[in-house]
What we know:
- The structure is a single chain.
- The protein is mainly alpha-helical.
- The chain is about 75% helix and about 0% strand.
- It contains 11 helices and no strands.
- Helix 1 crosses helix 4.
- The longest helix has 24 residues, at about 115-140.
Amino acid sequence: MMTEKKEKTRELIIDISYTLFAKNGFNKITMKDICDATNMSRGGIYSHFSSTREIFEVILEKLNQKDEMNFYEEMKKSIPAIEIMNRALALMENEMKHPEDSLSLAMYEYSGSVDSNLMQHFNKIGEKKWTALIKYGVERGEFCNVNADELVNVILYAYQGVRMWSRIIPMTPDVFKSITNLIKNQLIKEKISNGIKN
Length: 198
């Protein structure tokens, strides 16, 4: 019972901290800000986390483990590559529509002031997951035989670029749809795309 309560408190701290980082970036947020936002004492916060850095790193880890992006488990179950791709791109498109929830600014500040190696680490994980999915789809005959490295660069950096720029300039849903459509059109064979793509 105590462990469950502790875990719920930890999740509350993470959720509220996410909102603070998304709104204000990484550098402006202090442990006092998190105490105030959660209505917890410093001792209460520090019993779970030692610093804003630790909280932010936990948030990044959780984002990286989203079920919608767990391609390996889905591939093990022989789920169609198109289905996996559509679910992942729908998540990305939805996230691009909500710049207020973006951690892009916070990640940029974290990399510049704390540790750029961690962001490189997560980027490599993303590259490997998308490359594996593309190769899986090609092997199953669902995807075109594209240059996986080139397309993965488009997927990752177009997405992150929009997440960053949408904090600065207004963007319409057409922009987000154009990016996910481009990715689909590059991957899906014409005979398949007519029936299943959307």
